Amino acid sequence: MCERCIGLPRRSLLGALSATLLAAAGPPPPSTLTGDEALHRLMEGNARYRANQVHTRDFAVSRAARVSTHRPVASILSCSDARVGPEFVFDQGPGDLFVVRVAGNVLLDEGLASLEYAAQFLASPLVFVLGHSNCGAVDSAIKVVQDNASLPGHLPELIDRLKPSALAAQAAQPANLLHAAIVDNVRRTTQAVVAAQPVMAGLIANGKVKVAGGVYDIATGHVDLI
């Protein structure tokens, strides 16, 4: 690592790296889809998934083309839960989705850098934050808030990012505390993406990228837009 990078906070380091990549790579190829069109395509795919009428795909036929072409329809920030597979939930094929997955679908620095890369270099026109029902990470945050539960390893660092949603939901006294916290977490995360400087905020303000969010119901397969 260069001497001038030593001691920089991780967010600053990622920002510097992103700026360097932007300068080196130049402008991305123009996207053929708008953010609204990409969102419509995802929701159509979710409708097919719910109806068990997903597209039949030959995964081998376009393999060679994917070697030289990487043009995702959308970028997905999703929970790591094994029951939530964005490609299946939205009935999209190989190469269609640029997926960042972390428990609780929280926006970490590395995840933000990944979304920036997809938006700037791959012309991905949509960022979709995908929460889901019965999220264990959000439920853990609620338990920490309510019962002062102690968690091992690096889990407290993750839960700290979910506490604001747990506290907000608790203050609202909803009928379903967990669901309310899950929805609030999706809202907060989409707002964080929209405000993220310097890359995402600029692309969003210029209309090149749209940000949306939703909650996937594991029982029904439905994605409810937030």
Tell me what you see in this structure:
A five-stranded mixed beta sheet has the order 2-1-3-4-5, sandwiched between helices. A hairpin with a 6-residue loop joins strand 4 (210-216) and strand 5 (223-225). Residues 3-8 have low confidence and may be disordered. The protein is of the alpha/beta class and 226 residues long. The chain has one domain: Beta-carbonic Anhydrase, Chain A. The protein is globular and about 55 Å long. Helix 7 (155-172) packs across helix 8. Helix content is 49%, strand content 12%. The chain has nine helices and five strands.
Q: What secondary-structure arrangement, pairings included, does this model have?
A:
Elements: H1 10-25, H2 35-50, H3 63-68, E1 74-78, H4 86-89, E2 97-101, H5 109-121, E3 126-132, H6 136-147, H7 155-172, H8 177-195, H9 199-205, E4 210-216, E5 223-225
Parallel strand pairs: 1-2, 1-3, 3-4
Antiparallel strand pairs: 4-5
Short description, anyone?
The chain has 9 helices and 5 strands; from the N terminus they run αααβαβαβααααββ. By secondary structure, it is of the alpha/beta class.
**Which superfamily, in CATH terms, is the homologous superfamily?**
Carbonic anhydrase
Q: How are strands sequenced across the largest beta sheet?
A: 2-1-3-4-5
CATH architecture: 3-Layer(aba) Sandwich
Count of helix runs: 9
Taking the sheet with the most strands, its summary is: 5 strands, mixed
Report mean pLDDT, rounded to a whole number.
89
Tell me the Rg in angstroms.
18 Å
Helix content: 40-55%
Q: State the order of secondary-structure elements, H for helix, E for strand.
A: HHHEHEHEHHHHEE
Would you tell me the structural class of the helices and strands?
Answer: alpha/beta
Distance between the termini: 42 Å
**Uncertain ranges:** 3-8
- Count the domains: 1
The CATH first-level class comes to Alpha Beta
